[in-house]
Structures are given as C-alpha cells and as structure tokens.
Amino acid sequence: MANRSLFTTLIRRVKHKLGATSPWRPMSSKSSPLNATARSGIGNKDLMSEILRLKSPKRSAITLLQNRAEQGHKFSVSELRRITRQLIKSKRHDHALEIATWMETRNGFQMSPGDHAVKLELIIKVCGLREGEDYFTRLTDSASKKAACLALLHGYVKERDTKNAEALMVKLSGMGLIVTTHPFNEMMKLYMATSQCEKVPLVIQQMKRNNLPRNVLSYNLWMNACGEVSGVASAEMVYKEMVSDKNIQVGWSTLSTLASVYIKAGLVDKAILVLKNAEEKLSTCNRLGYFFLITLYASLNDKEGVLRLWEGSKAVGGRITCSNYMCVLSCLVKIGDIVEAERIFMEWESSFRNYDIRVSNVLLGAYMRNGMIDKAESLHLHTLERGGCPNYKTWEILMEGWVKSQNMDKAINAMKKGFAMLKHCDWRPSHGILMAMAEYFEKHGSFEDANWYIRLIHRFGLASLPLYKSLLRMHLQAKRPAFDILQMMEKDKIEMDDETSALVQAFNV
Questions:
Q1: Which helix (H) or strand (E) holds 4?
Q2: What pLDDT was estimated at residue 198?
Q3: Are the C-beta atoms of residues 224 and 261 closer than 8 Å to each other?
Q4: What is the dihedral of CA 228, 233, 235, 238, to 10 degrees?
Q5: What confidence score (pLDDT) does residue 42 get?
Q6: What are the boundaries of the region Disordered (predicted)?
Q7: How many CB atoms neighbour CB 378 within 10 A?
Q8: How many other CB atoms are there within 10 angstroms of residue 101's CB atom?
Q9: What is the pLDDT of residue 2?
Q10: Which residues pair with residue 29 across a beta bridge?
C-alpha cells in the first residue's frame, strides 16, 4: 500500500511509474548505453535548455527524455545529474524528481546511499512527508538509511513533529546508525523551535555518552537553551566548556549567542563587551556576521554600534544586497532614527536599478506608525514613479496608517488592492483592521458596501462573529432579510452568543 501511495501521487504529476530519485553524490553505475555521449548532433547543452524551458510542473520532463530515447538518442548520466542539480537550485523539484525517476528506471544503475538521501528529500518536497516516510521504510541497505535519515529528520523538524522525530532517533540509535553530530543538532533545533528548551541538555548528554564531538552549532544551541531555562550562569558554563574544547574555535556566532543571553538578562555592559569581541572575529569575506551584530546593537538601542557595523560591512567584497539594506533600515527605525534611515534609503535608491518594494516598505511603515502620513503618501507615489510594484505589505501598511488617521476612503481602496493579492500569498489582514472597516460601514449606513465587504472576507475565510453581528445590525435597521448572512455564518461554523441570537430572533418578530 505504501508503494501504491507513492506511485499514485507521482503518476498524477508525471503520468509515469515512480522509481528512485537521487542526490547528486555519485550514483554508481555499471556499463550502460546511457553513459555514451549524445548522438545525432544534439548536444547536452540543448537538452538542458529544453528541460529548463519546461516552466510548468504539468509539462513532463520524462516525456521529453522518453521521446528522445525512442528516437535513438543516448544521454550522458553526468549531464542529467547536472541538469537535475540546476533544477533543484531553481526550486523546480517536480522536474528534478522526474529526471531522477527516469534515470533510476533505466537498466544498469545502482543507487548509492547519497542518491537515496536526495531522493528522499525530493519526495518530501514534491509528495509530502508521509510519502518520504514510506520511501525511507522501504530502504533495506543500512548505508542508505544512514544517509537518508537526516533528510527525513529535517522534514520532521520543519513540520515541528517532535513525536515522530524522537521515534526516528530511537530507531536509528537502536540500529547503530547515528554516528554523526548532525541528527542531534536537528533535534536541538526542533526543541528550541517548539519551546522545549529543557530537553536540549538531554541531547548533549546523549552525545557525550556516545562520544560524539560537539560542533559550534551544538554549543550555540546548548548555550541558548541554558540561557532560556537556567539563566546566565548556566549559559556561561557552556561557553567555558566550549572554550576548553580543543576542537572548537570560538567565532562571532558563539559570541553573538552569548551576547543575546546577556541582553535578555538585562546585562547591557557584559553584552557590549562580548559584542566588541565578536566584531574582532568577523570575516572579511562574508557579511552575514555583520548583520547579526547590527541587529543585536539595535536591540541595545546602540545607534553608534549599528552604523559602525554597517560601514564595516561595506569593506567586504561583493555587492550589498537589498536584504542587507532592509536589515539596517529596520534597525535604525527600531531605535527611532528615521533621518538616518532616510539617508541610507537614498543611498540604496542610487545604487539599485531594479526597484525592490520591500526596501521602501521599511521606511513606509516607519512613516505610518509615527503618524507621518504626508511623508508616507509622498514616498508611496515616489516608489510608483521609480517603477516599484506594491506588494501585499505595501497595502497593509497604507491601510493601517489610513485607518489610524481616519482616512477611510483611502483605506478601503488600499484594502481592495491588498485583497486582490490574497490568492497569491499567505498574508491576511489583522482582525483589528477588518473590524475598523466594518464599523465604518455600519456607522455611515453603507449597506451595499457592507454586504460586498462581508462576502469578500467570507470567501477568504476571514469572517468572525463580531463582523457578522455588525452586518446583522445593519440588515435589521434597513429591514432587509438576513438569510444569506445566516447561511454564511453556518458555513463558517460561527457560534452565536446571546447578542447574536437576539438579533436573529428580531428578524422573525
């Protein structure tokens, strides 16, 4: 049944029987005609281009490969692997799985443990975690299970599935397959993400019993958990143990973790001292550490530290990204220095050709939250002139700002544009904003607008009892029947309170 479940899922996508998908560590193969170079003047570069043009997951890569094979063309396995790697890099997991499936179903190949690991990862991405579990269960080779277990465990961590992750660890331990640090780090990340910090030291104890070395991530997770559960002294003990570990080099990430513990405990002087030490360990080849420290300095309201690290990050080779600008702008807004944020925003505008609306949204939000409505509107118009394309966050910021300033006509217009994007994103407007709109319609007796509004939010599953009550009151006042409203309430499984019951009964008087 497990086989059939996995096959059925993939057949719907590729109309082809599912075989194996492979990671791209070497897949061992016996002599096979597939290892021959391409014939008939059709190069592998052309094959890659043709497959990469299959933008829609509904267009099958297997069909393309099969047609070529039937025409007598032969394929280089290494090139198919390169194409698959490119597809994975481009997040085209459906087509990556199709190609790997086709490769496995050809005669003469033997999957390596690394191939099984990436196959499992692709199955989880394309078909879901349950299908990944089925595939892992069918693996009979211990080396393959050992290679693939981390992908399955990572799937559990992503789903916050503590029960199954713990069961998998017990099973793997019983089989003697856990011989590296990585699964234990995954478990610690899971416990931190699910607010079970007290379990992290138990993981460390198990690592010590198994004589497994801790790496930097292990110590950082352990230190952070101890800070949450037992306080500063416990975190400092972990840090001292890390310093004494001859296999570990303390870097900026560890020091930033310790500084974070101090900040949460209100030990500002200690935090600043550790952050200064962390600055000395920053890489001249990577900006990541700079922005971790910038964020921590912002949490200390240390403008000088934020700007010092920002200027220091510019000395690192490579282009400063929009995400980097968003980080420093957010930090300056957080500490209340909008003037400095404006200066850096203008710096960004002068250096980027493609207008990323997410950067301007940071400043737009600061203006609206601080009641600087004119500046916000001016910036919004400016971004449109520069070619910026508003996203759902843009409309949410404008909507909330205009509601706060009681400019409801503009807020409603922004709401309509924001709602038009709901099909394409997970964003949902806050209940407070939704109620503000409903209250406005009720206050001004905008009966038709209110009816349109409630049907819209019902369609997106956003309706609530207070919203329906507002509309029921309007229907009652206008002496209009409310049958449609009651039907929507039933579909939304809205439970009535006493006030709502009284309103419904009033329609029958």
A1: helix 2-14
A2: 97
A3: yes
A4: -150
A5: 44
A6: 21-41
A7: 12
A8: 24
A9: 45
A10: 109
Task: Calculate the alpha carbon distances from 36 to 42, 382, 413, 440, 495 in Å.
Answer: 13, 58, 62, 72, 68
Higher pLDDT, 44 or 391: 391
Report how far residue 24's alpha carbon sits from residue 504's, in angstroms, rounded to the nearest whole number: 64
Q: Are 188 and 200 in contact (CB under 8 A)?
A: yes
- The full DSSP string for 162-213 is HHHHHHHHHHHHHTT---SSHHHHHHHHHHHHTT-GGGHHHHHHHHHHTTPP
Residue 78 pLDDT > 90, yes or no? no
Give the domain 180-281 fold. 1.25.40
Instruction: Evaluate whether 405 touches 371 at the Cβ level (below 8 Å).
Output: yes
Structural tokens at position 173:
């331990």
Give the tens place of pLDDT for each residue, 263-295: 999 999 999 999 999 999 999 899 999 999 999
Q: How far is CA 509 from CA 469, 477, 505, in A?
A: 18, 13, 7
DSSP 8-state assignment for residue 37: P
Q: What is the DSSP annotation of 232-246?
A: HHHHHHHHHHHHH-T
The closest of 260, 211, 217, 203 to 235, measured between CA atoms, is 260
Q: How far is CA 387 from CA 256, 279, 355, in A?
A: 38, 38, 6
Tokens of 498: 């006493």
Query: Given the structure tokens 């980097």, which residue do they identify?
Result: 324
Identify the pLDDT of residue 111: 73
Using alpha carbons, list the distances in angstroms from residue 269 to 263, 289, 366.
Answer: 9, 21, 29
Q: What are phi and psi of 308, to 5 degrees?
A: -65, -45
Round to whole Å and give the CA distance between 303 and 344: 14
Q: Which amino acid is residue 360, in one-letter code?
A: S
Q: Give the integer Cα–Cα distance in Å for 96 and 405.
A: 51
Backbone region of residue 461 per phi and psi (left: phi > 0; alpha: psi in -120 to 50; beta: other values): left
Burial label for 190, CB within 10 Å (0-12, 13-18, 19+), is: buried
* Predicted local distance difference test score (pLDDT) of residue 31: 35
Mean pLDDT computed over every residue of the chain: 86
- pLDDT at site 419: 87
Identify the helix (H) or strand (E) that includes residue 385: helix 373-385
Q: Are 148 and 113 contacting, i.e. CB atoms less than 8 angstroms apart?
A: yes
* Residues pairing with 109 in the sheet: 29
Residue in 505, 502, 421, 494 with CA at minimum distance from that of residue 458: 494
> pLDDT tens digit string along 418-444?
988 887 777 888 899 999 999 999 888
Contact 109, 30 (CB under 8 A): yes
